[in-house]
Amino acid sequence: MTSNNRQTSNNSNANRSPVNGQSARTCQFKMVLLGESAVGKSSLVLRFVRGQFHEYQESTIGAAFLTQTVSVDDTTVKLELWDTAGQERYHSLAPMYYRGAQAAIVVYDITNADTFSRAKVWVKELQRQAAPNIVIALAGNKADLAAKRQIEVVDAQTYADENGLIFMETSAKTAMNVNDIFMAIAKKLPKNQDSSSGRTGNNGPSITVDRPGNSRAAGSDGGCCAGTK
Amino acid sequence: MLKSMSKETINTRSDDQFCRNACGFYGNKIWDGFCSKCYREVYQQAKQIQEAYDGKSNTSISESNSSLSSSTSSSHEKRRSNITMPNPIRQMVHRAGNLRSSSNSVISALLNDEQTIENESVSKYLEIIIADDARSDIKSQVKTFANNFHKKCSNKNIRLDTLIQEYGTFTDTIKKRIQTNSIYREENEDLIHRVRDYVESIIFSKDYVSVFDRIAIECEEQDLSIQNRISSLHWVTPTMLDVVLNEDISDHRETMYKAVNALIELDAKTTPQGKIHSIMECKSFIEQVLQSTSGTTINADCFLPALIYVVLKAKPPRLYSNIQFSSHFSQPNGEQLYYLANLDSAVRFIELLQAEHLGLSSNDFSLYMRGEPVLPSSCVSLFDYSFENNSNIQQLRNMCIQCDEIEYNSQKFHENMTDFNQHLVQSVTDINELFNDSYTRFAYFEQIPALIKLENIDKKDIDLLNPSIIENKYSQETLESKTALKQDIEQ
C-alpha cells in the first residue's frame, strides 16, 4: 500500500488513486515513437494496443496518443505512447516529444534503406539528447514484405548490438513480434522508483514546469540536434 | 485629523458618543455605537451575506428589519433637520464617513463573492466525498493556502517562480495527503481530480489576474512576436502544410471554425484546467474534421499539421503566456500533456517556419512574406489542376520576376536621369557664368561665342533633357546622344 502510494505520486501523471490498487504496484512510463512517416509507426502501435487489451483502448479515432497496460512479473506497467510526426519538416520538433520519455521505439521500413539510415540518426540523437537511461528499441517493420527487403537482418542486428538497443523485425500486418518488442521494452524499464525517475527530480507538476522552458532554451541554443534549423 | 478638528470646533462631547463610522452623527449603544444610518448599512449587508450564505431569507427578520429601518430613518431625518448651521468641516467629515461606509460595502461584497464561490465549488466538486471530516479537511487546507497565496500574489515583490513553486508544493502535499491520510480511505479514486478542480476554482477565482499578469509581463515580447509571426503567415494554405482538409465542404469548415474558436477561448479561461479543456476541445474538433476527410486513424503525421494550421487561423491572443500558464499551473494527465506538448510544438514550428517546410522556394516564400501576390494563395490549387504542365507555372513566375526587375531598373534609371539632368543644368549655368565673366573681362573676344553658337546648343540641350521626354523614351540612343552632348559641352 505504501509503496504503491509512492509509486503513483512519483510518476507524474498518476491519475488512478492507490486505494483500488490493492494487488500489484503500478508504474507509468512515457514512450515516444520515432521514424519516417510511412514506416508504419501508427499501425504498429494500433496493433499493440488493440490486439491485446481491447478494454483499455481509450480513444476510438485518435491514434496520436494511446496507452496500453501490460503486466511484467508482479508489476502493472502502463505505457503512454506518444506518436510523433514523421515528415522531414517536423523533425526539429522531436525533442519536445522525447524529452522526459523513459522509452523510445525507433521504427524503420525493411524495404526502404533510407528509413534505416534515418532511424540511425534518431538513435544517435536520442543517445545524445534524451534522458541518459532511456530504453531504446529498434523495430524493422513490414517484415511480411521480406521479398522486397533492402536491409538485412544481420546488419540491423549488428548495429543494434553495437548501440545496446533492443532489436526485432516486426510486422503490424501479421502481428509478428509486435507484442514481443513492447514487452521487451516493458521488462527493461526500471521498476524501482529511484532509477526510473531520471526526469523527475521533483514531484508531479515540476515535470510540466520544466518542460516548455527547457525546450525553448534547448531549441534556441543548439537548434536541437536536427541541426538544420 | 478631520475627526479631531471636528471634535474641537463643533462638539465638546466625548468621542464615543459619535457614530463609529465617523459620519458626523451621534452613535447609539443599541446600534453598536453606530448612528442609525450606518448601522443599517453595515448590518443589513452582513445580514444579506448571511442570507445568501444560508440560501434562504427569513421573512420575520426582514420584517422587523424594515420596521427598524423606518423608525431609525425618521429619527435620522429629525436629527438632520436639527442641524441648523451647516458646517463645512462637518460636511467633509460626513463625506469621509460615506466613503468609508461604501468601501465597507465593497469589502463585504467581495466577502460575499468569495463565500458564494466557495460554496458553489464545494457543492460542485466535493459533493462526492462521503466522509464529512474529509471534506472539511480539504476545505480548511485549501482555505489556508488560498489566503496565504493571495497575500503572496498581492505582494508585487514576490516573483512568479516563487508562486509556481508554492502552488506546486501545495498541490503535491494535498495529493499526498489524500493518498496517505486515513480519513480518505473510503473515497472514490476520482477524488484527486475533484480536489484539483476545487483547488483551482478557489485559488484562481481570486488570483488568476495577478498570476497571469506576471506571466504576461514576462512573456510580452514572445506573445507579440508570435502574434506578428502568425499575422505574416496568413497566406499559408492547408495544402502547403500537407493537411488533408477540404474547406469547401461546409461541415468541415464549420468544425474547423469550432476548433479555431476553442483555441481562441484559451485566453478567456481563468483556471489551468479550463485552459487544458480548451486545448482538448480544439483537439477533438480537429480529429473530427480529419476523421471525416481522410477516414483513416488519426496519427501524429496528420494531427500536427492540422493543429499548426488551426493555430495559424486562430491567431490566439497571448498564446505564449497561456501555454506557460498551463504548463506551470495545470496538472494534466498523460493525454492532456501530450496535446499541450503538441500545441507547444506547433508554436515552435511557426516560429522556425522556413520556405522548405511549406514546399516553397525561398524566393516565393519571401515574396509571400512581403505580401506580394506571386500567385494568390486561394488559386494555388486551381493552378495545380489547370496547368498540368509545371513549366507553364514556372514561366509565369519567371515572367513575374522579370517584370518586377524591369520595373525596378527603370525606376533606378529614371532617378539617375533626373540626377544627370540637374548636374548638366548646373554645369551649363556654371559655364555660362564663366563665359559671361570672360566677356566682361575680355570684351574684344565677343565675336568668338557667336562662332560656336553656344546659346543654341544650350537650349536644345535643355529640351532634350525634359523629364517628360525621358519617361517616354528609355532608349539607349537618348542616353548616348546625351552623353555625346555632354562631351560636346565639356569640350
TrEMBL record, chain A:
It is an enzyme of class 3 (hydrolase). InterPro entries: P-loop_NTPase, Small_GTP-bd, Small_GTPase. Residues 1-17 have a biased composition (Low complexity). It catalyses: GTP + H2O = GDP + phosphate + H(+). It is found in: Early endosome. Gene3D superfamilies: P-loop containing nucleotide triphosphate hydrolases (3.40.50.300). GO terms for cellular component: early endosome. Its main location: other. CDD domains: Rab5_related. Residues 1-22, 191-229 are annotated as: Disordered. GO terms for biological process: protein transport. Residues 220-229 have a biased composition (Gly residues). Pfam families: Ras. Its EC number is 3.6.5.2. It comes from the Eukaryota. Residues 192-206 have a biased composition (Polar residues). GO terms for molecular function: G protein activity; GTP binding. PANTHER family: PTHR47978. Belongs to the small GTPase superfamily. Rab family. This is small monomeric GTPase. It comes from Rotaria socialis.
TrEMBL record, chain B:
GO terms for cellular component: cytosol; endocytic vesicle. Transmembrane segments: none annotated. It comes from the Eukaryota. GO terms for biological process: vesicle-mediated transport. Residues 13-47 form the A20-type domain. The keyword Zinc applies. It holds the Pfam family zf-A20. Residues 56-74 have a biased composition (Low complexity). Keywords: Metal-binding, Zinc, Zinc-finger. PROSITE patterns: VPS9 (PS51205), ZF_A20 (PS51036). This is Rab5 GDP/GTP exchange factor.
